[in-house]
Amino acid sequence: MKKSIVLILTVFLLSISSFAIVNEGYESPVVNVVEEAAPAVVNIESTRSSPVPVDPYIQEFFERFFGQEMPEYQTKGVGSGFIFDKRGYILTNYHVIESAEQISVSLPNGKNYDAELVGGDEDLDLAIIKINADEDLPTLPLGDSDKIKIGEDAIAIGNPLGLQNTVTSGVISATNRSIPKPDGNGNYVDLIQTDATINPGNSGGPLLNIHGEVIGINTAIAVDPQLGSVNIGFAIPVNIAKRFADSVMETGSFQRAYLGVYISNITEELKKSLGLKVDKGAYVQDLVPGGAAEKAGIKVNDVIVEVNGKKIENVDDLTSLISTYPAGTTVEVVVDRFGERITFNVTLGSQTPEAVEAYFGIVVRDITSEDRQKYNIRSSIQGVIVEEIQDDTYALGLRAGDVITEIAVNGVYYDIQNTDDWEKIASSVEKNSYVALIVYRNNVRYVVQFFYR
């Protein structure tokens, strides 16, 4: 009896040992990518102060009886970024450092540095910050996002939920994705979709290929209202980031491009009534005199169907894609002219007029035709468009893209048609005045009011 038990145990142990190791000596290439890339991926912490939102009457009472302003509270944000230049330049998302009063960067080696903002763009959701380091910094090479293929490996490194240098891997699930921006103003276009897990805190971190090259900047995740996160992530193609970085590092800002067309979506009625030969694209209703499109030879009734090899299906596709190029870039634009495909080389102009001095913490400029397309601003609405909120002490709730049409000061109303009107009135507002801004957003009127102290 004992001999049979020993025999059975011996056979069982031999069977275990014969299947104990599979692919002995194999090492995933992901390991090599992470070893090379991880030292250049940083943790970014931003600190911003926000005033406690109160009624102007309560603010006045607080100042009168306590002799001080209402206190502010500090909030902190955490995100990721990566060093792409040995001089200390770091790429990240704009929303990671938006309105930050202080930016600090932690390297994987444990060293911490204060960082300064070099330039950022809210629409692209890209920013460059810089640290002055006392060491030789590791960097990541930038790849070519136009060459990526669906199904190839994708590796994300970042700081999800503050857990530094977390690695996830998957594949490129799709390219050229378009998703709505969180504020509803336009779309993010040409995005890379991946199933490499991306979580809050990954924003700004690199999406890498199997060669350790950056192919995208992790930016957004898909969330189902019922299911929550569904493990679909999106990254900004690195080629867009390259164009942004070149412009910012050369000029200090991103000079957004301007095509100079008034466009609309193609409907069945429009197609049949005008005899158009395509179902999708951006229909050219009119041209800005002397604009980039007119100079290149594009005409009214043309339908723009492609820009630099990217298909254009509607107005949002065109406006969002053009906004990823800096002024002065030459792009290849394909139009359908009643069934004939024609290609034009268009040198893009500058979209953004010069902004004026900030008043009440608000930077504004004149409205362009591109603004009217992008933010759906009716032609009957005249005023100035909000370019940036530098300080939200007064203009709580105001945001880029809003149109200010009037200012009311202590019950007296002033029309605002352009930046000259804005400067004249805003500069004349005296301290201890009750101010209201009449604002249009999505063609809906609302009022922002505050006590100017």
From TrEMBL:
<dbReference type="Pfam" id="PF13180">
    <property type="entry name" value="PDZ_2"/>
</dbReference>
<feature type="domain" description="PDZ">
    <location>
        <begin position="263"/>
        <end position="339"/>
    </location>
</feature>
<keyword id="KW-0378">Hydrolase</keyword>
<dbReference type="InterPro" id="IPR036034">
    <property type="entry name" value="PDZ_sf"/>
</dbReference>
<dbReference type="InterPro" id="IPR001478">
    <property type="entry name" value="PDZ"/>
</dbReference>
<feature type="active site" description="Charge relay system">
    <location>
        <position position="125"/>
    </location>
</feature>
<feature type="active site" description="Charge relay system">
    <location>
        <position position="95"/>
    </location>
</feature>
<comment type="similarity">
    <text>Belongs to the peptidase S1C family.</text>
</comment>
<keyword id="KW-0732">Signal</keyword>
<dbReference type="InterPro" id="IPR043504">
    <property type="entry name" value="Peptidase_S1_PA_chymotrypsin"/>
</dbReference>
<dbReference type="InterPro" id="IPR001940">
    <property type="entry name" value="Peptidase_S1C"/>
</dbReference>
<keyword id="KW-0720">Serine protease</keyword>
<protein>
    <submittedName>
        <fullName>Serine protease</fullName>
    </submittedName>
</protein>
<dbReference type="InterPro" id="IPR011782">
    <property type="entry name" value="Pept_S1C_Do"/>
</dbReference>
<keyword id="KW-0645">Protease</keyword>
<keyword id="KW-0677">Repeat</keyword>
<feature type="binding site">
    <location>
        <position position="95"/>
    </location>
    <ligand>
        <name>substrate</name>
    </ligand>
</feature>
<dbReference type="GO" id="GO:0004252">
    <property type="term" value="F:serine-type endopeptidase activity"/>
</dbReference>
<feature type="binding site">
    <location>
        <position position="125"/>
    </location>
    <ligand>
        <name>substrate</name>
    </ligand>
</feature>
<dbReference type="GO" id="GO:0006508">
    <property type="term" value="P:proteolysis"/>
</dbReference>
<dbReference type="InterPro" id="IPR009003">
    <property type="entry name" value="Peptidase_S1_PA"/>
</dbReference>
<feature type="active site" description="Charge relay system">
    <location>
        <position position="203"/>
    </location>
</feature>
<dbReference type="Pfam" id="PF13365">
    <property type="entry name" value="Trypsin_2"/>
</dbReference>
<feature type="binding site">
    <location>
        <begin position="201"/>
        <end position="203"/>
    </location>
    <ligand>
        <name>substrate</name>
    </ligand>
</feature>
<feature type="signal peptide">
    <location>
        <begin position="1"/>
        <end position="22"/>
    </location>
</feature>
